[in-house]
Amino acid sequence: ICWSVRGGWHRPRVQPYGPITLDPAAAVLHYGQEIFEGIKAYRHADGSVHTFRPDQNGRRLQRSARRLALPELPVSYFIQSLRELIAVDEPWVPSGEDQSLYLRPFMFAKEAFLGVRPANKVAYYLIASPAGAYFTGGVKPVSIWLSEDYARAGKGGTGAAKTGGNYASSLLPQAEAYENECDQVVFLDQDRNVEELGGMNVVFVYKDGTIVTPQSESILEGITRDSILQLARDRGHKVEGRGVSLEEWRSGVASGDIVEVFACGTAAVVTPIGVLKGRDFLDQQPTGDLALSLREELTDIQYGRREDKHGWLVRLDGA
Ligand code: PMP
């Protein structure tokens, strides 16, 4: 779908997959004015195809758009784009354990203009790719590298938006994580509060059953996290969103007050954190059953194996 200041949203169409032609002066290439989403389509045992809380992705795309001075795509157009692609790509939705079709909606400034101002011409695209299981041979705890030299976002910055620049700035710390034999990076904010991983939110489980997750204006509000926390509330857990300092994390683990730490996002759903490593420490993390049982409950809903009591699924194919 295209957008221009004069014409609004226009020319929606499904076309064969192929390269996008851009003017070398297209604003996105110079100033990074772009945003995206990540969402999956799941095939149920009866063959039907569903997606999970697409309204939430549509609304987050709108919030990202506001921050990046891009036009807001109406949520109904967003969901319509998923339906129209599935109408063509339905055979590509795999069936089987933890298989899905990954959908990648994105929007960028395509106007050829080298001045620094919001672009007057924008494009919204949706592409898709079959995705296999994130874990093969069972869920494995991940090891986390604490990034002390690099921040992901600052106050008033773009941390809460899903925009490429945040991911570009996470690549060097991610390389540092690999050098230190860790799978993922955890970012802190300027107050040394825990933010999130490169592509997942963090959740702490306390001894008394309370679940705490970092909250700040620079964190991407994960839809998986929101859903997992709702399932935990349904089970009677108290849930708190608040600042969590690195010191609270480390001392909570050392004293046994924190009994589980896990990360969550669309790709891996939920993964326990096994190790937190910094320049001069390595803390083993406690593991428990809650992360995996919430993971199972959520994936059961997504794959139609359990009642969708919150009405989160939206059917995308035909009927
Ligand atoms: N934080 C970041 C930085 C992410 O890229 C993602 C993945 N979209 C998440 C958190 C988790 O969000 P969601 O559960 O909506 O996938």
Features:
single chain; 319 residues; alpha+beta; D-amino Acid Aminotransferase, Chain A, domain 1; D-amino Acid Aminotransferase, Chain A, domain 2; 2 domains; 9-stranded mixed β-sheet; 8-stranded antiparallel β-sheet; 17 strands; binds 4'-deoxy-4'-aminopyridoxal-5'-phosphate; amino-acid biosynthesis
Question: Which small-molecule species are bound to the chains here?
Answer: 4'-deoxy-4'-aminopyridoxal-5'-phosphate
User: Low-confidence stretches at least 5 residues in length (pLDDT < 50)?
Assistant: none
Tally the helices. 7
CATH class of the largest domain reads Alpha Beta
What summary fits the major beta sheet?
9 strands, mixed
- Radius of gyration (CA) equals 20 Å
**CATH topology description of the largest domain:** D-amino Acid Aminotransferase, Chain A, domain 2
Please trace the helix and strand order, writing H or E for each element. Answer: EEHEEEHHEEEHEEEEHEHEEEHE
What overall geometry do the principal axes of the alpha carbons give?
A: globular
Distance between termini? 25 Å
Beta-sheet strand percentage? 25-35%
Question: Which structural category fits the helices and strands?
Answer: alpha+beta
Keywords: Amino-acid biosynthesis, Aminotransferase, Branched-chain amino acid biosynthesis, Pyridoxal phosphate, Transferase
GO molecular function: L-isoleucine-2-oxoglutarate transaminase activity; L-leucine-2-oxoglutarate transaminase activity; L-valine-2-oxoglutarate transaminase activity
InterPro entries: Aminotrans_IV (IPR001544), Aminotransferase-like (IPR036038), B_amino_transII (IPR005786), BCAT-like_C (IPR043132), BCAT-like_N (IPR043131), BCAT_family (IPR033939)
GO biological process, one term: isoleucine biosynthetic process
